[in-house]
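Lecture notes, part 5. Sequence design as translation. It can be helpful to think of inverse folding as translation between two languages: the language of shapes and the language of residues. The source text, in structure tokens, appears below.
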């Protein structure tokens, strides 16, 4: 797992990006979604409540939940979320690498960060 995180950092992802991707993986692993892939109102309320309480050690997800495939899929979702938040239209993301490069160069996706001790 640590090697995957280090590889993401080596690619230039900021810690906040990595944490966002990992948080989405954890939420997806813990909560069920409807057929359209959207959480129900009940699931959203439960997720909000869960985010506001400390996790007990015996509730921790296994490292297998954070597979290469889960990271890849949630990284695409992260890119898609940024496309939407900036009012852009990403279409079907035919080339997610090119879209990510555009977000970095044109929209400064990785320009901003705050000073902090490295997490990964």
């Amino acid at each position: 797992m640590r090697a995957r995180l280090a590889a993401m950092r080596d690619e230039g992802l900021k810690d906040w990006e990595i944490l966002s991707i990992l948080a989405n993986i954890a939420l997806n692993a813990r909560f069920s979604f409807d057929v359209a892939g959207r959480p129900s109102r009940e699931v959203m309320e439960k997720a909000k409540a869960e985010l506001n309480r400390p996790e007990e050690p015996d509730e921790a997800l296994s490292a297998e939940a954070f597979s290469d495939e889960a990271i890849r899929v949630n990284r695409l979702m992260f890119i898609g979320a940024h496309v939407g938040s900036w009012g852009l239209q990403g279409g079907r993301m035919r080339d997610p690498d090119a879209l990510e490069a555009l977000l970095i160069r044109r929209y400064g996706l990785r320009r901003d960060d705050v000073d902090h001790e490295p997490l990964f």
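The translated text above is only one of many valid answers, since several sequences can fold into similar shapes. The CA atoms of residues 96 and 105 lie 14 Å apart.
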